[in-house]
Amino acid sequence: MRNLIGSKESFGIEYEIQPGEHDVFGNMRLWIEGKYIGTFEDENILSVALGHFDLTSLDKFDGCQFSNKKPGEIYELIESYAVPGSGYCHFMPGEAFDDFIIYRYACNGNLHFVWRLCDRPFFKHPGYPKGIQSAVVSIDEFRTVVAEYKKIIASEESSRNRGAGKNRS
Predict the structure, then answer these.
(1) By CB atoms within 10 Å of each CB, which of 21, 28, 110, 120 scores lowest?
(2) Does pTM surpass 0.70?
């Protein structure tokens, strides 16, 4: 069953946990300002995304330098490493995002995303917009949604670990 933490209109994590005994596998994608990023059909270890949702690396990069630039310009500057430290902007939270090239940066309490669908994606994304996409979410909202996702994944992992212990007895 698909679940959504947050909202598709602002920021949300859509996910589905697959049954299993060990690692928490499932499907996921992100929603930002009504646009999705990720391939829901691509199964992956859901806890892998948690490390990529950590924002501490963005403290090393001043995203406000992009304030007067258009999304396409920002994407190209990050992609080409033309701006020192832009390597911290890369965002790849797991296999479900392999069809996308995603960058993020922080400025004035907001998390900005710029991305595009790869030229030759593995999965089909009918009607997905061509070219550079962009969206913004407040860092507070991002952290709130991620914290809830983290609780759910941790609970599922704990449940599976308890179950695995019973099977070994």
Answers:
(1) 120
(2) yes
